[in-house]
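name: query_chain
kind: protein
chains: 1
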Amino acid sequence: MFRFLIIAMLSCLCLRPAAHAQQRTATDTIPMRAVVYGNETIPSITLPIVEVVDKLPKRLRKERERWTRLRAAVYVTYPYAVAAGRVLRDVGQELEKLPTKKARKAYLETKEKELKAQFGNKLENLSVYQGKVLMKLIHRETGENCYEIIKELKGGFNARVYQTVAFFFGGNLKSEFNSQDDRDIEAIVQEIQLYNRFN
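structure:
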């Protein structure tokens, strides 16, 4: 039996095609650190330092969730607030140039159509929470709350109607940005401005 195994192995080796050594190329080596220990060379990899902490307490988890939600809302709405500030400045300058009330009204109607075409769908998709944050940011950028802006541009009746609708959704067009109460929003805005400065 043992002889049969030896004959079988020798016949397999003899019948096997000639083996060729692999050709080495420049791309088949990976440089890495190594440590020589006795006669052995052992690869050495430095892993990043990881801090292992316990699960956050419930109050801190709630605070982190609140901060994360606010940060996401500010990141989404801040560009709209900046655009609103720019548009209101442009509209104010243009309205001063127009001589008649009829010309101002026509200009405001065309501007409103342009803005609806540009921002309408995007603003309609905002959540109620994001809308509240946007109103604060608009006040921060313009110095006027949304109620005053609507009253100035579309009249007092329209401002009251919009205020009533906002009230039913839990909002308030008269909400204003307060640097003390809204310091988290201010910190996030500063972060966005810093990020944009270096990009």
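note: Residues 58-97 form the longest helix (40 residues).
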